[in-house]
Design goal:
Order of helices and strands: HHHEEHHHHHHHHHEHHHEHHH
Strand order of the largest sheet: 1-2
Oligomer: single chain
Structural class: mainly alpha
Helix content: over 70%
Length: 376
């Protein structure tokens, strides 16, 4: 089969996975007298993004002297895209948000296939795309959230790094930095790869091109620009954005808050969401170790490592950590390679594994959004 045919098959599998996930959620929503499109397009953070898209920044909800939820915590690229869609056509905010997220998810899936095929071949690339669509929290890829946007820019930026296209890598990393707070992981990966390339070129007596310097300089611009803009608006240039996050209850404490919450989970009686979160984060740590042991390319290791560090080391909103890890697609490469080997040697075993993952993904996604109603 041609490259285009294999790519179409991978995207077809991704489409089926996400469509079935949405159908299971819709069935659960209808059974409980809820509207599935409302749940997908107007849940939790989606409402903040749609508010920014419609009215700009400037909304805060005060719950106490040390608990203030400001919309400045949300980065601007996704609401800007939603506003662009609403102004260009007849779609409302929620529908426009879903359209942006769904298109971004497909662009990300295309990037995953391209990157996987470049590194390990088309079979592994297809498995990588399918596994990403079957993660336990993959329902977020079908919601009006920013993770698909970040992943799309991240995967194509990292692909550009591996291809040596530094200007593209830097520009896409800058856009990734405008999409989410943890988007600076893409810039970190580009900068690490650029530093390594500079060292190897100069060691060999060569000359570093201006494209590499320019791409490296562009990479952190988006993230830094928004953080500094919020700081200027809040009257504290370097620290204003981080104060906004602190008042939301989010801060980086090297994992102390997460460890305290894990202790509470082990000793207390909580709903399924929190123990499942703990399992997913633990699995991510194991997968990162496997990624490093597999000698994956440096930018993929740095990108995944930074995302994992932010997820594990940040306190507050423990239940959101799996969502924060959705863009960490390189963690799935060891699984994709193992699944590909299993499919060649024992096709039925691979089929059972995929079906089990699909059942978990579809049922848990419906539970998260329809039943648990826990902030995602």
């Amino acid at each position: 089969m041609s490259v285009a045919g294999d790519a179409a098959r991978a995207l077809g599998l991704f489409t089926v996975a996400r469509l079935l996930g949405v159908l299971v959620l819709a069935a659960a929503a209808w059974a409980t007298d809820q509207r599935p499109l409302t749940l997908l397009g107007r849940s939790w953070d989606s409402l903040w993004y749609l508010g920014i898209a419609a009215h700009g920044y400037g909304v805060s909800e005060v719950f106490g002297p040390d608990v203030v939820h400001s919309d400045l915590a949300f980065f601007p690229l996704y609401p800007a895209l939603v506003r662009l869609v609403t102004e260009a056509g007849p779609l409302s905010g929620g529908a426009a948000g879903l359209l942006v997220s769904w298109l971004a998810a497909y662009l990300a899936a295309c990037g995953l296939f391209a990157l996987g095929a470049r590194l390990y071949g088309r079979a592994v690339a297809t498995a990588l795309v399918l596994l990403w669509g079957l993660l336990p929290h993959s329902i977020v890829l079908s919601m009006a959230y920013t993770e698909p946007v970040l992943t799309a820019f991240a995967v194509w930026s990292l692909y550009a790094v591996l291809a040596g296209r530094w200007l593209w890598a830097g520009a896409l990393a800058a856009l990734a930095g405008l999409s989410r707070p943890n988007g600076f992981a893409v810039a970190a990966a580009v900068l690490a790869a650029a530093a390594w390339e500079c060292w190897t070129v100069r060691r060999a007596g060569g000359k570093v091109t201006h494209r590499l310097w320019t791409g490296a300089a562009l990479a952190p611009v988006g993230w830094a620009a928004y953080v500094l803009w919020v700081g200027h608006r809040e009257g504290d240039l370097p620290g204003g954005y981080f104060e906004v996050q602190r008042l939301w209850g989010s801060r980086f404490d090297l994992g102390r808050g997460s460890l305290r919450f894990v202790r509470h989970l082990l000793l207390g009686d909580e709903q399924l969401v929190f123990p499942m979160t703990m399992v997913i984060v633990a699995a991510a740590l194991v997968l990162f170790a496997l990624l490093v042991a597999d000698r994956a390319p440096l930018p993929l290791v740095v990108y995944s490592g930074v995302l994992l560090l932010v997820a594990v080391g940040g306190s507050g909103f423990f239940e959101c950590k799996p969502r924060f890890l959705l863009p960490a697609f390189p963690l799935l490469l060891p699984l994709a390679r193992a699944l590909t080997r299993t499919a060649r040697a024992r096709p039925w075993h691979a089929t059972v594994v995929v079906c089990a993952l699909a059942g978990l993904s579809f049922c848990y996604g419906a539970y998260l959004v329809v039943v648990a109603r826990t902030p995602l």
